[in-house]
User: Which sequence fits this backbone?
């Protein structure tokens, strides 16, 4: 079957790309202006101490040996230990705790974007050139023009500072940190790391409510952006489908407008939008850097920013690699889904 | 179609481009798009503000007597709120923590955003066009090497690649620009490669080659000018993105130096210090940032709609 070959080919193509990605990430440590050994040793280290660290960490080895070691480690998802942020703690475990935070935020934001963006896009297309259409289009263009690091502060000022409806930052109210020792406070329970799911699993509905209240603003800010993009794509895709012969045929055979649109229109128009949703999800992961900084959420994005600030190279490398890996995997998933839905793409 | 080909043959280079724009009714179609005109008006206004700020305000706006008094006041512990007065007739956007009027700073921010945005987009366009046409024209290994390298760069979410590169280059506005140039180049390379492949199917390219033109001449005089329409659209759409990303890098503390009146820096200051006490610190720089980006998106969207359908597919 052709599709199996397509999938295999698509996965094989990942190997050179990921090797390239790893090489670029390797370069972060070795081309950067800072001396990693000096960063590791701290401000007051003597030259001997720094030299000792160089030897211990293999920084004195020839570059290709270091490169080989880096590739081997990376393939096993081992990124070394943090220098500064959380000294001597493995980068992998730092990331393991922060990845779910970032993913959870992106998922809720994306869900908001999809639930609002799809209907708006369809409506806009069906009523092309109406007032509804114009408003939706201008709204969508505005939505993609507003950077998250502005819409974020604006909703915080409006809903947290002025109206006091939502909390300003963090993932959950302070009280839950103090009264309990589970979840993100320690690692006593095997948890998903997704706060809205963990709190429900543990039956802590008060904590769940607090988590949702904290998630609402950041997820909305992401949601508005993603809604704008999805509604734009949905509109243009739907408009294209409406002009197809099979829609005319469906109408000609006397089928009702609603059924024609839903059964023939929507189904076909949705296929290209899947790509946008997928790519969008990857972009959201990258945007986490900004959203998390604005809303004070300790996800992977915020950890990356902090690591760059203090020169904690292993953490920077690990975070960038994981982001790129997630991004690539999401894109792979999108391509494969797309190829099943629309087999023409395989040629 | 035939008029276009003739025009191109008669006049290569830039003049040929203008001839083709007229022939394809690109401009007249663009002019009938009201939203695109709105975009153009926004951009022109911002450019006007930027030039005004550059000429009449210069780097850091000097303190007025009132501002000076306010600083003295706040330093003496008298009335510290004066130092960050809210918007008023005298100071339309209010004062910042150092008792500087925010309005002229925001205008100067337009200058910085448009200047560095132009440099970023310009450099990545030139690089991308070069790589794209070379990949399309020579094909085979050249194509593979160039495009696989582009694939690696495209395997990162754009802001993250910028951050990774900033870690390598070091922070600072120039380095942030350099990082973003590398982030955007692959997009242009892709668009141009696609467009160039379509152009090369045309017979006038075969004719030029048959006449004995060298590769360089074919590329520069015939392939590149015919790819410029989708490139222009891509540049316009990318302009908004470049302004946002540059501001984002400054916002995160890896771009403009502290104290620079760039929108990203002012936003960062507003979020860090003014969220609870001085909403206008973050509000106005961000508003101008969003408006400018909207202008470029409106214009770029209109340009894409006005574009020859054959080339429309190439643009992201």
Assistant:
């Amino acid at each position: 079957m052709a599709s199996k070959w397509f999938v295999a080919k698509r996965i094989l193509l990942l190997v050179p790309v990921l090797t390239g990605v790893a090489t670029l990430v390797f370069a972060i440590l070795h081309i950067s202006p800072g001396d990693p050994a000096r960063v590791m040793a701290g401000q007051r280290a003597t030259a001997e101490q720094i030299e000792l660290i160089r030897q211990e960490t293999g920084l004195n080895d020839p570059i290709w040996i270091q490169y080989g070691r880096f590739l081997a480690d990376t393939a096993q998802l081992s990124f070394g230990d943090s220098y500064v942020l959380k000294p001597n703690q493995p980068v992998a475990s730092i990331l393991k705790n922060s990845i779910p935070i970032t993913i959870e935020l992106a998922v809720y934001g994306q869900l908001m974007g999809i639930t609002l963006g799809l209907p708006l896009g369809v409506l806009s297309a069906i009523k092309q050139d109406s007032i509804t259409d114009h408003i939706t289009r201008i709204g969508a263009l505005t939505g993609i023009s507003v950077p998250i690091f502005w819409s974020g502060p604006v909703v915080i000022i409006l809903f947290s500072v002025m109206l006091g409806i939502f909390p300003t930052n963090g993932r959950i109210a302070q009280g839950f940190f103090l009264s309990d020792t589970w979840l993100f406070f320690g690692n006593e329970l095997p948890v998903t790391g997704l706060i809205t799911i963990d709190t429900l699993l543990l039956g802590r509905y008060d904590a769940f409510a607090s988590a949702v209240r904290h998630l609402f603003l950041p997820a909305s800010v992401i949601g508005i952006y993603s809604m704008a993009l999805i509604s734009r794509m949905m509109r243009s895709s739907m408009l294209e489908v409406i002009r197809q012969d099979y829609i005319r045929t469906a109408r000609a055979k006397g089928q009702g407008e609603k059924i024609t649109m839903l059964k023939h229109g929507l189904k076909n128009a949705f296929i290209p939008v899947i790509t946008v949703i997928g790519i969008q999800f990857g972009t959201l992961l990258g945007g986490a850097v900004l959203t998390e900084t604005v809303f004070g959420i300790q996800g992977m994005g915020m950890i990356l920013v902090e690591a760059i600030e203090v020169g904690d190279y292993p953490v920077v490398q690990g975070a960038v690699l994981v982001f790129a890996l997630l991004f690539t995997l999401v894109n792979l998933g999108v391509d494969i889904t797309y190829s099943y839905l629309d087999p023409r793409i395989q040629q | 179609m035939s008029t276009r080909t003739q025009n191109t043959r008669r006049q290569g280079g830039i003049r040929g481009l203008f001839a083709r724009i007229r022939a394809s009714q690109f401009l007249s179609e663009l002019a009938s798009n009201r939203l695109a005109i709105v975009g153009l008006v926004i951009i022109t206004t911002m450019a006007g503000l930027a030039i005004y700020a550059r000429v009449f305000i210069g780097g850091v706006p000097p303190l007025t007597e009132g501002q000076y008094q306010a600083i003295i006041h706040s330093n003496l512990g008298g009335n510290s709120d004066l130092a960050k007065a809210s918007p008023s007739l005298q100071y339309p956007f209010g004062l910042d923590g150092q008792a500087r009027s925010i309005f002229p700073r925001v205008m100067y921010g337009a200058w910085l955003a448009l200047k560095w945005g132009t440099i970023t987009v310009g450099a990545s366009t030139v690089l991308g066009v070069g790589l794209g046409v070379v990949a399309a024209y020579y094909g085979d290994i050249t194509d593979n090497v160039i495009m696989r390298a582009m694939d690696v760069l495209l395997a990162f979410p754009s802001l993250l690649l910028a951050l990774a590169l900033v870690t390598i280059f070091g922070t600072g506005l120039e380095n942030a620009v350099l990082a973003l140039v590398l982030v955007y180049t692959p997009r242009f390379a892709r668009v141009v490669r696609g467009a160039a492949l379509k152009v090369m199917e045309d017979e006038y390219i075969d004719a030029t080659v048959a006449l004995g033109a060298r590769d360089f001449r074919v590329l520069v005089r015939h392939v590149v000018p015919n790819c410029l329409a989708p490139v222009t659209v891509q540049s316009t759409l990318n302009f908004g993105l470049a302004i946002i990303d540059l501001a984002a890098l400054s916002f995160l503390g890896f771009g403009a130096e502290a104290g620079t009146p760039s929108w990203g820096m002012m936003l960062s200051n507003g979020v860090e210090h003014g969220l609870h006490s001085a909403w206008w610190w973050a509000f106005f720089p961000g508003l101008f940032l969003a408006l400018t980006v909207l202008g470029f998106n409106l214009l770029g969207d209109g340009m894409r709609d006005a574009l020859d359908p054959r080339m429309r597919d190439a643009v992201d």
Remarks:
- The domain at 99-346 of chain A is CATH 1.10.3720.10 (MetI-like fold).
- Chain A touches chain B through 50 residues (CB under 8 Å).
